[in-house]
Known about the structure:
Strand 2 and strand 3 (50-53) form a beta hairpin. The protein contains 8 helices and 3 strands, in the order αβββααααααα. By secondary structure, it is mainly α. The chain has a 3-stranded mixed beta sheet with strand order 1-3-2, covered by helices on one side. The N and C termini lie far apart (35 Å). The protein has 2 domains: 4-78, no CATH class; 88-145, no CATH class. Helix content is 45%, strand content 7%.
Amino acid sequence: MIVLGEDEQLRARLAECLEPYGLQLQSVPSQGAIPGTYWGESEAGLQGTTLFFRNDTPLHSALHEAAHFVCMSPARRSGLDRDAGGDDAEENAVCYLQILWCDGLDVPRERLMADMDAWGYSFRLGSAPRWFAEDAEDARAWLQQHGIIDAAQRVTGHRRET
């Protein structure tokens, strides 16, 4: 599993990736409680415009919570503390976006998707790679509709504004 504490360059690339969205990374001391975590343990947390992580936080967790921040409505974002909420369509978009971000982080998509499957993400076709390749048209359309990716599936650096 890719964790944030193993690679200082990865953390720097992640901070650079999230900066256009107005989301800041904040580390928490080892074994410290992670503010705003929904799942507890080492999972990333969200409060306001801050994404909290520890050295043992999995990259997929940080990307997933960051993607929630980008994909949620401005009203939900303004009161964000722990629970990103959202519906199934938004959740699919979140999963798709976190995979797209791999390209800018110099992380193989396949590696991130293997971590997602190992953690227990649930996809209609049974695995993240099959879902991403064969069954994610709705997620792509949702992200395009909200201006988060363009027609070529490139991230735009824009977050949802409606």
